[in-house]
What we know:
Elements: E1 16-24, H1 30-37, E2 43-48, H2 51-57, E3 67-78, E4 83-89, H3 100-104, E5 109-114, H4 123-132, E6 136-141, H5 151-158, E7 166-169, H6 174-200
Parallel strand pairs: 1-4, 1-5, 5-6, 6-7
Antiparallel strand pairs: 2-3, 3-4
Amino acid sequence: MDSKPSADRPAQRPPTPVKIVIAGGFGVGKTTAVGAISEIQPLRTEALMTSAGAEIDRTGHVPTKTTTTVALDFGCITIDDDVKLYLFGTPGQDRFGFMWHDIVHGALGALVIVDTRRMDDCYPAVDYFEKAGMPFVVGVNLFDGVLAHDLDDIRWALAVNEEVPVITLDARDKLSVRDALLAVLHHTFRRVRTQQTSKTT
C-alpha cells in the first residue's frame, strides 16, 4: 500500500522538539523521574558509589542509594501531536557542576526537584536558573507520600519569588511527573506572553 500523502491528505508534521532540564541536589529523584515518564529506554550515566563518594555526597537520608549520575540522564515523552519533550537530567553533585552549561543550553525551561529533608542541596539549582533567567518550576518530591512542610514555607526557605510555581510530585509516578512537566511548559509560556505584553505597552 502506498503510504505517501495524497493531495487531499497533507503529511502530518512531526511534533516540535522541546528541551526540558530536570535538576536538583543529589538523590532527590531526578533519575527516577526521567525513568518514570520516558517513552524510550532512558539513557543513564550512573556509576557505583564508593565509600569516599558517599561521604562527600551525604547519603544519610538516602542510605539505600548505591549509584549516582555522573553525566546526565536522558529520556523523551510525546505530549501530543504538536510537542515532544526531550528530558535532560543533571548530575546533582557540585563537583559535576561544570557540565551544567552544556546540558542546559537550548532548554525551554527546568524542573527543580526538591527533597525537603535536604533543602540546602537544592539551593545551587535554584540559584543557577535564577541567574540564567530561565523559567523553572520547583517540584517537591513526596518521599513516602508525605509533604513534610507547607509549600509556602518551602517557597520562603528557597527564597523564590511568587511567579515561580512550587508544586508537589511523586517522582515514581508517571502521571505526577507528566503534570510537573506540563507545569514547566505552562509557566514558560506565561512568562513569554508577559514579556511580550510588557514590550508592547
